[in-house]
Amino acid sequence: MDVLNSENPPLATAPPPLPPRVWKFWGTTLWGLFVFGGMFLGQLAVVIYFMLKQGAPDIASAIQGVGGGLTIALSVITGLPGVLLALWVAIRPTRTSFGDYLALRWTSWKNFAIGVAALALLVGMWDLVSRAVGREASPGFMGEVLKSAQAEGALWLLVVAFCIAAPVSEELFARGFLYRGWSETFLRPGGAILLSSLVWTLLHLQYDLFFLIEVFSIGLLFGCLRYRFNSTWLTIVLHGLNNLAATLQTLWLAGQS
Q1: Domain count, the chain
Q2: 37, 107, 112, 159: least CB-packed within 10 angstroms?
C-alpha cells in the first residue's frame, strides 16, 4: 500500500529518448549548401589575408593573384575546418553521432584492395583515352600550380592540400553527407550516387570538359564503393591516393619537358 501513500509518490518514468534521424532530400540539399558555404568561407579567408597583406584595393584584384601554388594550397587547407564545423552543425540536430552519420568506419583490407584495383583500372583507361586523342595526360591547370608551388618553396604544402585536406573535405561532403541523406529518399542509392557525383564534379570547374567527365566517372566509382562497403574512410584514402598519383605524374611530366 506504500504506492498509495502521498508521502511516497511513485517515481516518474523518464520519456524514451528520441530516435536518431537523417536529413531527407531538401534537408540534405539545404544543409549541403550550408556546408559548401563553410568550405567557401574557409577558402575566402586566404584571399582576404593576401588582400590585406598585399594592399589590394578589392577582392577582385586579390583573386588575380590567387592562382599561385601557395595561395591555392592554403585556401584548400583552410577550407577543411569550415567543412568540419558546418557538418557538425548540420548533423547535431539529427541526434546521430558524427562518425555514424558520415560512415566514418574502416573496411577490410580486401575491400581496400578492390577499391585500389578498380581506381587504377579506371584511371588507366582514361590515360589511354587521353593519349589516343592526343591530349595531355594531366590537366594544364595542375601543372601550372605545381610549378608555382615549387618556385615559392611550397610544394610540400600543396601536396598536403591536394592529398589530405581536399580528399577529407570533399569526401565528407559528397560521399559522406550528401550521399547519406539522398540515398534514403526517392533517389535511392543509385540516384544519390549520380547526384552526389555531379555535385562533386562541379567543385572542379577549373578543369576542361574532358577532365570533368573523368572526375565524374571517378565520383561514380567512389559512390559505388561507398554504397557497397559503407565506408567513407575508404573513399577518402582512395581519393588521396588518386591525387597523389596525379601529382607525381604531373611532376614527372614537367621534368621531362
Answers
A1: 1
A2: 37
